[in-house]
Amino acid sequence: MRTKPAVALLALAGLLLAVSIGLGAYLASRDSVGLPVTKLDPAPRDLAPTVARERTASRPSTTTRGTTTVEDRHGGSGGNEGSSGRGGGGGGDD
Predict the structure, then answer these.
(1) Rounded to two decimals, what is the model's pTM?
(2) Among the residues of 3-56, which ranges form H helices?
(3) What is the DSSP letter of 47?
(4) Which is more confidently placed, 25 or 54?
């Protein structure tokens, strides 16, 4: 029976700690810490080069194109019955 008062005391200490952290955060943030509003300079227009530079390849580029075959494995009518991606058969939730 000694554990119940210890748990209650620990819970009370946790609540007091949470309240004190919240109060401290409130006291720290209630003062204004914002910066004054200033007008920004207009955005410069010359950030990007006007002509794109040609890329130099460090290695030769080889491109191979293969063919892919798609196999129809769901057979059937082509309707919208099993298009959810889930399995069709199975037992019920009896």
Answers:
(1) 0.34
(2) 3-29
(3) S
(4) 25
